[in-house]
């Protein structure tokens, strides 16, 4: 395997311990809810709230209070762990701050106990309700920010958890007044346990997810010895021959905004400054390797710039409802990268500059190119530059590009190898299985896949798959194997070259 992750760093033990406190806190709370009620004959987990276990006069109060304090210690430690490992992942840092607040507020509960049902309420009952509302708010905020912290799957999971918390929280709130009136509440314990259970499970999942990625999201403090000394290199390829034109200006604005966010060294590369020949369609790059291209020009220098970058952006004007000719020419010259993707772990985006209409489809196209080449794609931006530009139009463009700089910067600090989307995983498994079974060992795609360890790996990048993804991946390996059975008598290597090219060197057939 040739996978490397130069951005990942193994977490230091204290950080791992702090993060593990999240999962431990969930286990402790679960245990408290199973074992403490056993010490109270007649307590109903379905019909009574968790708070009643620590109510004044409850037989379990003496046991619950110290365990509750231990729980608060664990959640505070988890919050601190999140805060210190979040680095430039701002949403995760906010979750860390909220978890810290949540953990510290845990110490306040013992000063705000409720009374048992039927007993006269006092100030502490009011404090209990206020604390409960504040805790719910903090938790919902944490779920909301958490949704933006760790990629698509975690976002879906966080939002689903938030939905469960809101729905069961409403049901719980509807039963709340009946507790004060000492009326029967046959379901209140169920709603509360689902509500709190979903939230606690989320803490455990977050804790385990961060531990499994085994990397600091990105160290923050200026004097942190783990701080990477090198700035991230971001290259914007300007696909307009209009010197100093709108595409160039938009690219400059984007890059200035990105550099201002810190730790980025940018470069603007104007494609028309390079000698790029028109692709002749010989397919030598596909079949025999890119070095066999008969055109010797600036392509490899540009490709080397992309390979040396942590982030790549393609900027193009909208010319006749598509990218500019020079950018399309560059893509054609890199057509072999669609067969042999190589930019995994790098961040990518696109900028389209247009007069009036058609740019959003170009953004989609450009983002699709980035995805097919293996990049982590940040959705591109389409800006209007209809001349003469009003001040309002200029401000709108600056705002759009500032937002894109910010999103790009955030992606640069996220884990380089996120778990693949299902469609990407399926495409990988189908491609690699067909390539292994149908192409000969001399075929360049076969060699690329073999040398990268992709015939054995889970995915192009060293991303970890969940159990469901593993099952789906194995299933599509089998489906691809069935679909790509080499027919009897068909040679394994069937290069898609014109007949003449199979007999002569590529240089001979491209004339
Ligand atoms: C040949 C050509 C074709 C164009 N086609 C479109 C178009 O289809 N849709 C559009 O909104 N703008 C179109 N425009 C306007 C450009 O997208 C716009 O002026 C852009 O800002 C040019 O960027 P530049 O200065 O970097 O060349 C076209 C401009 C040119 C020169």
Account of the 3D structure:
The protein has 511 residues and is an alpha/beta fold. It folds into three domains: 13-213; 232-413, Rossmann fold (3-Layer(aba) Sandwich), CATH 3.40.50.360; 422-487, no CATH class. The chain contains 18 helices and six strands. The chain has helices at 13-35, 61-85, 90-105, 123-147, 152-180, 188-213, 246-260, 284-288, 299-307, 325-333, 336-339, 359-372, 391-413, 422-438, 444-451, 467-483, 499-503, 506-509; strands at 232-238, 264-270, 311-317, 347-354, 376-377, 381-384. Strands 1, 2, 3, 4, 5 and 6 form a six-stranded parallel beta sheet that branches. Strand 1, helix 7 and strand 2 (264-270) form a beta-alpha-beta unit. Helix 1 runs antiparallel to helix 6, helix 2 (61-85) runs antiparallel to helix 3 and helix 5 packs antiparallel against helix 6. It is elongated and about 90 Å long. It starts with 12 loop residues before the first helix and ends with a helix. The model is unreliable at 1-10, 214-228 and 489-511 (pLDDT under 50). Bound molecules: flavin mononucleotide (FMN). Flavin mononucleotide (FMN) binds next to helix 7 and strand 4.
């Amino acid at each position: 395997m040739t996978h490397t992750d130069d951005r990942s760093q193994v977490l230091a033990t204290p950080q791992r311990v702090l993060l593990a406190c999240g999962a431990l806190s969930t286990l402790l709370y679960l245990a408290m809810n199973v074992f403490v009620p056993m010490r109270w004959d007649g307590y109903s987990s379905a019909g009574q709230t968790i708070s009643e276990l620590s109510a004044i006069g409850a037989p379990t109060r003496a046991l619950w209070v110290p365990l509750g304090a231990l729980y608060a210690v664990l959640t505070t430690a988890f919050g601190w762990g999140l805060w210190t490992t979040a680095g430039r992942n701002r949403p995760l840092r906010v979750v860390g701050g909220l978890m810290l607040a949540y953990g510290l507020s845990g110490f306040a509960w013992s000063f705000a106990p409720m009374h048992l049902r039927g007993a006269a309420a006092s100030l502490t009952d009011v404090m209990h309700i206020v604390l409960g509302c504040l805790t719910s708010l903090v938790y919902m905020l944490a779920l909301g920010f958490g949704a933006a912290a760790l990629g698509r799957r975690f976002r879906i999971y966080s939002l689903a958890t938030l939905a469960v918390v809101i729905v069961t929280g409403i049901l719980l709130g509807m039963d709340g007044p009946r507790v004060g009136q000492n009326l029967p509440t046959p379901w209140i314990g169920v709603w509360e346990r689902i509500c709190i259970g979903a939230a606690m499970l989320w803490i455990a999942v977050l804790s385990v997810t961060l531990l499994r990625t085994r990397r600091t999201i990105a160290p923050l403090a200026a004097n942190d010895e783990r701080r990477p000394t090198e700035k991230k290199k971001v290259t914007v390829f300007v696909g307009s021959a209009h010197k100093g034109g709108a595409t160039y200006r938009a690219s400059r604005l984007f890059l200035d905004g990105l550099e201002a966010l810190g730790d980025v060294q940018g470069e603007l590369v104007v494609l028309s400054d390079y000698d790029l020949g028109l692709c002749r369609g010989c397919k030598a790059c596909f079949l025999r390797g890119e070095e066999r291209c008969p055109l010797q020009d600036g392509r490899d220098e540009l490709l080397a710039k992309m390979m040396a970058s942590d982030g790549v952006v393609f900027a193009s004007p909208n010319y006749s409802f598509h990218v500019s000719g020079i950018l399309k020419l560059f893509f054609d010259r890199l057509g072999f990268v669609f067969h042999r993707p190589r930019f995994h772990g790098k961040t990518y985006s696109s900028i389209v500059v247009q007069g009036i209409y058609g740019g959003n489809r170009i953004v989609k196209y450009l983002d699709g190119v980035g995805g097919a080449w293996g990049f982590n794609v940040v959705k591109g931006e389409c800006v209007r530059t209809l001349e003469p530009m009003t001040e309002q139009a200029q401000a709108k463009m600056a705002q759009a590009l500032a937002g894109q700089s910010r999103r790009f910067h955030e992606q640069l600090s996220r884990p380089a190898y996120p778990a693949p989307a299902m469609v990407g995983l399926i495409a990988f498994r189908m491609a690699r299985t067909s390539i292994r079974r149908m192409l000969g060992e001399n075929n360049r795609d076969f060699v690329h896949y073999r040398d990268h360890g992709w015939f054995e790996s889970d995915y192009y990048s060293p991303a970890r798959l969940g159990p469901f993804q593993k099952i789906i991946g194995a299933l599509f390996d089998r489906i691809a194997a069935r679909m790509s059975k080499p027919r009897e008598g068909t040679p394994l290597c069937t290069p898609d070259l014109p007949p003449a090219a199979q007999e002569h060197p590529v240089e001979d057939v491209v004339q």
